[in-house]
Write a structure and sequence with these properties.
The chain is mainly alpha-helical. It contains 22 helices and 9 strands. The chain has helices at 3-14, 21-24, 75-83, 90-108, 112-130, 137-160, 164-175, 197-202, 223-232, 237-248, 280-293, 306-311, 315-326, 359-377, 401-410, 426-430, 434-442, 467-475, 510-521, 524-539, 551-562, 569-576; strands spanning 61-65, 259-262, 298-300, 302-303, 332-334, 381-384, 416-419, 451-454, 492-493. Helix 4 crosses helix 6 (137-160), helix 4 (90-108) runs antiparallel to helix 7 (164-175) and helix 5 runs parallel beside helix 11 (280-293). The protein starts with a helix and ends with a helix.
């Protein structure tokens, strides 16, 4: 990346980053002013160690992960609302941090259209290398990530200096025994009043938290993970893509993930927030560029918000169609806890503060249009199903088995995976994971023949003798509809939920931990099903011996041909089914 871009950001920081957010809000609005970048070159964002042909006997697929940054979501509303506002008293501490983080993003991070232009610059640099000019994209990206790490820490330290409220809150929590830096009170001299948020958060010991946090132990992750999570919102999306490939693509002691399906999110309307500075279509175009530059190893979903679809007269569905048909999107991401049932919304507001009028009927009409088109074009749907991240506490209950029974009985044959298999939360534990049991029962119905569940962000599976681990082991042998002798084990999919998973210590080793768990309750064939063949079946990715393939595979073939891509994983899938 050119030095003048970093100089610009350093200049803006020196002028006072907290006051400059408004100056940058207009920078991302006119996509048409970008120079054309129609010939992005494949594979140049892939670390060298990942370019060799995999010897793994199956194609590893992470069908549930995320790539976005703080420009793509209404960050303060998202973090201090759906994500952590049910975990007092840390929501107050988080609130003090996220507002300056959001302001810092406006200074240091690019919006989607700016980043697309940066990708074009990377391509130009690669062409210069081909012409004999020394340049290493791998080194350049790693240097950019290191620079962003440094900028983030320095910026947050600057925010903490003089932030009396931050330190006052920290001191009160420390006095109550809820967090500690691991030092005696007499060691905290006056000069320590200028501790940075990073120094505080990295050393918080969640083991010391009292009963105010009701989540099970594996949910009470160390606050240093929160720091890592916030850092992901700060950087470029192609940095996050590079980190994702490096973290899980190399395999290590666990399975190698060959291809990732990454979901943007669309939350501004249900959160009643200002639209993100990065327009959703800009995000999709950028993700298409990342797909090309990673050689087809990362492919996006397109999010669908029925609230926005109603508000803008069908615009959300039109963008879904464009994303799937033009930008290489593999499916649609739904988020029912943002205030809608999967279907059957007519009637009383379930506690989501809907507008007056027949709003439930409007939601169902919007979802009907989506589902009918997905059936026609064989477009898979990934839906959040954990009792978490709701726009209100009541909304967290939405997206459960009853809701999907309504949807699937009305739209038989819909290809759906429910994310997190009902969830690994305090609510799920209190209900004895009844939601997961309900999803497994729904898989028996003939109209739910293409209904699956993924195991993303479920670290409770890895806890010795945990209830969740035992229940999934019991359910894996339950019969399901479809092929003879098919069981729930044929409907489970691997996903990580990175970078949302960054909250949990399992993030660094999730694929290996999942493999170990699957081997504990099954054998190598179960590992291959969950990491590979079940996802291939749901998404209809394989080309059979007669040359026939599902509609998604045909769309991907056209997308790859258009951009001169030859993904290694695609012919390997065909070989699995030869």
């Amino acid at each position: 990346m050119s030095q003048d871009k970093y100089s610009r950001r350093r200049f803006m920081t020196s002028c006072g980053a907290l006051g400059l957010g408004s100056l940058l809000e207009g920078c991302c609005s006119v996509y048409s002013l970008l120079p054309p970048c129609s010939s992005l070159e494949p594979d140049i964002l892939v670390p060298q160690g990942l370019k060799a042909m995999s010897t793994q006997p199956f194609v590893g697929v992470d069908m549930h992960c995320h790539i976005f940054n703080g420009y793509d979501v209404p960050l303060s509303e998202f973090l201090t609302g759906p994500v952590l506002h049910f975990e007092p008293p840390f929501d107050a501490l988080l609130r003090l941090i996220t507002e300056p983080v959001e302001a810092g993003i406006r200074t240091f991070a690019p919006c989607a259209s700016e980043e697309y232009a940066e990708l074009c610059d990377l391509v130009s640099s690669q062409r210069e290398k081909a012409a004999g000019i020394e340049f290493s994209i791998e080194s350049a990206v790693e240097n950019e990530i290191a620079t962003d790490d440094s900028n983030f820490s320095e910026y947050m330290a600057r925010v903490a200096n003089g932030n009396v409220e931050f330190l006052r809150l920290y001191r009160s929590l420390e006095r109550e025994g809820m967090m500690t830096l691991g030092v005696r009170p007499d060691q905290l001299r006056k000069e320590d009043e200028r501790l940075s948020p990073e120094e505080i958060l990295r050393n918080v010991r969640f083991e010391d938290i009292k009963a105010s946090l009701k989540a099970p132990a594996h949910i009470r992750t160390k606050a240093s993970r929160l720091w890592s999570f916030l850092r992901s919102f700060w950087g470029r999306r192609y940095h996050n893509a590079y980190r994702l490939l490096t973290l899980y693509g190399e395999g290590g002691e666990g399975p190698k993930v060959d291809v990732f399906f990454a979901a943007p999110v669309d939350f501004d309307v249900p959160l009643k927030a200002q639209p993100p500075s990065s327009k959703l279509e800009d995000q999709l175009k950028l993700m298409a560029g990342i797909s090309v530059l990673t050689g087809g190893r990362i492919l996006p979903y397109v999010p669908f918000d029925p609230h926005k679809d109603i508000l803008h007269g069908g615009e959300a569905l039109r963008l879904v169609k464009k994303g799937v048909m033009e930008y290489g999107c593999v499916g649609v991401k739904l988020y029912p806890p943002m205030g809608f049932k999967a279907y059957g919304n007519s009637g009383q507001d379930p506690g989501c503060h809907w507008p007056n009028g027949n709003y439930g009927e409007k939601l169902d009409a919007s979802l009907k249009g989506l589902y009918e088109w997905c059936l026609e074009c064989e477009v898979p749907i990934l839906a959040h199903s954990s009792e978490s991240n709701g726009v209100t506490k009541a909304c967290q209950r939405l997206g459960g088995p009853d809701d999907w029974q309504h949807a699937l009985s009305e739209f038989a044959g819909l290809q759906v995976s429910v994310g997190h298999f009902g969830g690994d939360t305090a609510y799920a534990s209190q209900d004895d994971y009844e939601r997961a049991r309900g999803f497994a029962s729904l898989m028996r119905e003939s109209y739910a023949e293409h209904f699956y569940a993924d195991l993303s962000f479920m670290p409770g599976l890895f806890e010795p003798n945990s209830t969740l681990s035992r229940i999934v082991e019991e359910m894996k042998g339950m019969p399901v509809s479809g092929a003879e002798q098919a069981t729930v084990a044929d409907r489970l999919l691997y996903g990580s939920d990175w970078f949302m998973l960054a909250f949990d210590a399992s993030a660094l080793d999730y694929a290996r931990l999942m493999q170990d768990y699957l081997l504990k309750i099954g054998d190598e064939s179960l590992v291959a099903k969950v990491f590979s063949s079940n996802t291939i079946e749901l998404f209809r990715l394989a080309k059979r011996e007669n040359g026939k393939a599902g509609k998604l595979r045909n769309r991907l073939d056209r997308f790859f041909e258009q951009h001169n891509l030859h993904p290694q994983w695609l012919p390997r899938i065909d070989s699995q089914y030869a």
